[in-house]
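PROTEIN ENTRY
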Amino acid sequence: MNRLQLSWSPERTQHLKWALIGITLSWTLAALMACTTPPAGGHSLYQQLGGQSGIELVVGRTLDRVASDPRSKRSFQGVKMPYLKKSVAAYVCKVANGPCEYEGETMANSHAKSAITSSEFDLMVTVLREELDRAGASEAAKNELLRRLAPTRRDIVTAH
């Protein structure tokens, strides 16, 4: 059986190595830029949501509505709403890559004894969508925030 053998000069081998390193660096830089480039319009998700004040407004309205809705109000009995609003706003701000510090419990710990159902969680998402619309958030910003919040479902919904 004949084997094809390539014989490259040391110069050509060195040239090939540098070319591969250059390609690898280019791909790495492109990937990093894709991860850090703000969305269309040059605004971060935090900015698209109206910054701290916009997030606080949406969170406050959302929590007021679900706390008074007969389908979910039992989950808010005995909860100190001003503290909850501040905590949830800080969490959303953090999720949106804002400058906020969330110092609350993990989602699993804070909801462990609440027995939140899927329908209560879905109601919260629906109301949040409506309040984001009401605040003038773009469809892209709304969808991105909900995408980032979606993984919390497995930690929040504990009753079936």
Q: What stands out?
A: The CA atoms of residues 59 and 104 lie 16 Å apart.
